[in-house]
Amino acid sequence: AIGMARMGDAAESLSLLGRALRLLPEVNDLPGEQCIWWNNAGAAYHALGRLHDAVDAAVRAIGLLHGFGEPNLRAVCHGNLLIYRLERALARDASLHNCELLQALESIQAHIEALIADERHHFVPESVNAAADAMIALGRVDEAREWLRRGVKSAQVTGAGPELGLLEWRLARVDRLTGL
Prior knowledge:
Helices cover 78% and strands 0% of the residues. It has nine helices and no strands. 38% of the residues are buried.
């Protein structure tokens, strides 16, 4: 469903999600599997631009994490929820007066800090990109540059080629915007 959404086939993506949702009761006794399903559903909704549905799916995924000790799944689910909330708030109103946006940005920054402190660098680039988008929209370009640099460092630690390339490209673009 995620792949179909990313290719722009919304109807097929939603059809696949619907079929999978009907099968979900078969794994009622496996909260980890349900969590992964809802996290993936959130990613598909996100790719379709349905941010409200993405947030709802991510909240459901996180609700299934209780008692589940997988730290990487926990990091992915929380990161996705924070990205979806930030993008939803940004889509509503990209102004300094949008308290929801400012809170979402603060939350994702704290999440990024925690990921770096826990040396979970492979989860950093996507969150940094979302945070940088919000900072740029708010006119906080210098701050976006600093966060993009941190994202570059994390991507270098993991050897994440595509993520590193995207972060470096975005950083160069921000530098051009500010005349550096």
